[in-house]
Amino acid sequence: MSYARIRGTGSYLPERVVTNTELEGRIDTSDEWIVSRTGIEARHVAADDELTSDLALHAARAALEAAGREAGEVDLIIVATTTPDMVFPSTACIVQHKLGAGEAAAFDVQAVCTGFIYALSVAERMVATGAHRCALVVGAEVFSRLLDWNDRRTCVLFGDGAGAVVISRDDEPGLLASHLGADGSQGHILRVTGGIAEGVVRGNPFIEMDGQAVFRLAVRALGESAERVLTEAGLAADAIDWFIPHQANLRIIRALADRIGLPFERVVTTVAHHGNTSAASVPLALDTAVRDGRVRTGQTLLLQGVGGGMTWGSLLLRY
Ligand code: UT7
Fold first, then answer.
1. Distances from the Cα of 228 to the Cα of 19, 180, 238, 316, angstroms
2. Please, which residues have CB within 8 angstroms of residue 86's CB and are 6 or more apart in sequence?
3. Nearest-CA neighbor of 276 among 229, 226, 227, 207?
4. CB of 275 closer than 6 A to ligand 1?
5. Does 20 qualify as catalytic in the annotation?
6. d(CA 283, CA 290)
7. Contact, 96 vs 72, CB < 8 A?
8. Taking Cα atoms as reference points, which of 20, 308, 14 lies closest to residue 152?
9. d(CA 136, CA 95)
C-alpha cells in the first residue's frame, strides 16, 4: 500500500498592503467595524501586471525549495483558483510552463474558497495510487479583481495571495480522512454571475454575497464535516495538534473551534494580515505555521475550507 505525504510548503503575498485605515478614507467603514466583525486588519493587493500564475509561481518555488525538489521532478500540477489568468489555457498549464516543470499533467480546480481542499484531496489520491510521483498543489487568487471597491459589504473582506504544497509517495499515511461536500441550491448566497459571451461580460462581474447566510452555512457544514473526518479516522478532537481553517472571518473560526471542542491556542489564524484569499487561504496559513515552527513532522492537522458553490471540505492529515 502506498500513501502520499506533504514534503514542503510555500506561500506568497503581493507587496501592496491595503489597511483598514486606508479603506476608511475611501468608503463608509471603520477599522473598528472590520476588526470586530471579521478580525481582518489588512489585505494584500496584486500589482496591475501581476497575474494569478505569478503569485502561484512564487509560492510553488518556495514549496519546491522547502521540499528539496526540482521543478523537473514534478509530474502533476493542480492549481485551485477562481480567478484564472484567462478562460484557457488553465492557470496550472501556465504555471507548468513558467516553472519549467517538463510535461507534468496540469489542470485547475474550481471550488472557490474550498478549492485547495478539493485539489489536495484529488492530488493525494493520484499520488497514493502510484499514477504520479510528485505533485504540486497550489491555491492562488487575485480576488481583488472581483471586488466592487465601493461595496463596503464585500470589499473589506477579500485579498490576493498564493500558497502551495509539494506531496510525494510515502510508506506511511499522510491523509487520515477526508470529506468533501457541496450544495448547489445555495449558489446564490455567494457568487459572481458574470461570464463571457460573444466578446462581452454578461452578468455582474463583482462578488454578491448574503454574509449572514454564508456565516450560518459555514459553521453548520464545517462543524458536521469535522465530526465526519474525526469519526472516520477513529480520533477524538484532542488528537488534533493544529486546526488550520479557511481564513475568512475570525468569528466563524472561533465558532468552529468551540463546536469541534478545540482550545483556540491550537488554531492557526492569519486572516488579520491578509483577509480572505479564497483558495489561497488554507495553504497560506499552513505555510505560516510550518515556517514559524508550530507545525512539525508527525503532527495531526485538520484543514478546512468553505466557499461559493456552496462547497466545503475537511482533510485530516498526518504532517
Ligand atoms: O469564504 C466565505 C466568504 N464569506 C464569508 O466568510 C462571509 C461570512 N459572513 C460574515 O463574515 C459576516 O456576515 C459579515 C462580516 C460579512 C457581516 O457581518 P454581520 O455581523 O453579519 O453584519 P451585517 O451584514 O448584519 O451588517 C450589519 C451592519 C449593516 O448596517 P445596518 O443595516 O444594520 O444599518 C451593514 O450595512 O453593518 C453594515 N456594514 C458595514 N458597516 C461598516 C456592512 N459592511 C460594513 C462595513 N463597514 N464594511
1. 38, 10, 15, 10
2. none
3. 207
4. no
5. no
6. 10
7. no
8. 20
9. 10
The pLDDT assigned to 1 comes to 65
- How far is 17 from 273, CA to CA, in rounded Å? 9
Residues in the chain: 319
> Per-residue DSSP letters for 109-134?
E--GGGHHHHHHHHHHHHHHTTS-SE
Residue 36 has a pLDDT of: 97
Q: Is the CB of 213 under 6 A from ligand 1?
A: no
The C-alpha cell of 132 is what?
Answer: 504520479
- Tell me which amino acid residue 113 is: C
Is 67 touching ligand 1 by the criterion CB < 6 Å?
A: no
Cα(133) to centroid of ligand 1, in Å? 45
Instruction: Kindly report whether the global pTM for this prediction surpasses the value 0.70.
Output: yes
Is residue 2 over pLDDT 90? no
| Per-residue confidence (pLDDT) for residue 119, from 0 to 100 | 98
Cα 162 to chain centroid, rounded = 8
- Cell numbers for 261, please give them: 471542542
* Residue from 249, 242, 312, 254 nearest 277 by CA: 249
Q: Return the best residue to mutate from 19, 249, 304 for the ligand 1 pocket (most ligand atoms within 8 A of CB).
A: 249
Active site residue 93: no
Looking at 44, 132, 179, 246, which residue is catalytic? 246
